[in-house]
Design brief:
The protein is an alpha+beta fold. The protein is built from 1 helix and 5 strands; from the N terminus they run βββββα. It has a domain of 77 residues.
């Protein structure tokens, strides 16, 4: 397979959640274009289809350089998890509730 012509992607440039470098296992990373998980072979991402299922993804053939160890990746992932845990959602400001309609049996019958 030929490379796609883009510069080599160092995994240290990727977010730690787009990468899996577990010790004793093959590295797995998400394609930078379509975010599908791929196992690199011979230093590049294997060919795969885009989201439409017809055309080839532009990330196919992306050359990859794994420049992190499993321990470094785990430390970056733990730091990202801690940072995400500190974020808060926006507060929900609820408006006044609409008035409740009276039950049907209490409504006067129209003459």
């Amino acid at each position: 397979m030929k490379p796609n012509g883009r510069p080599v992607l160092a995994v240290s440039e990727l977010a730690p959640n787009l990468l899996m470098l577990c010790p004793g296992a093959r590295p797995v990373l998400a394609c930078p274009d379509c975010l599908t998980w791929r196992v690199p072979s011979r230093g590049m991402l294997p060919p795969h289809r885009a989201a439409d299922g017809i055309t080839r993804c532009l990330g196919s053939g992306q050359r990859v350089r794994i420049d992190l160890t499993a321990a470094e990746w785990r430390a970056r992932l733990d730091a990202a998890v801690r940072a995400a845990g500190l974020r808060r959602g926006s507060r929900v400001h609820r408006g006044a509730r609409p008035p409740v309609a009276p039950p049907v049996f209490r409504i006067a019958r129209a003459a």
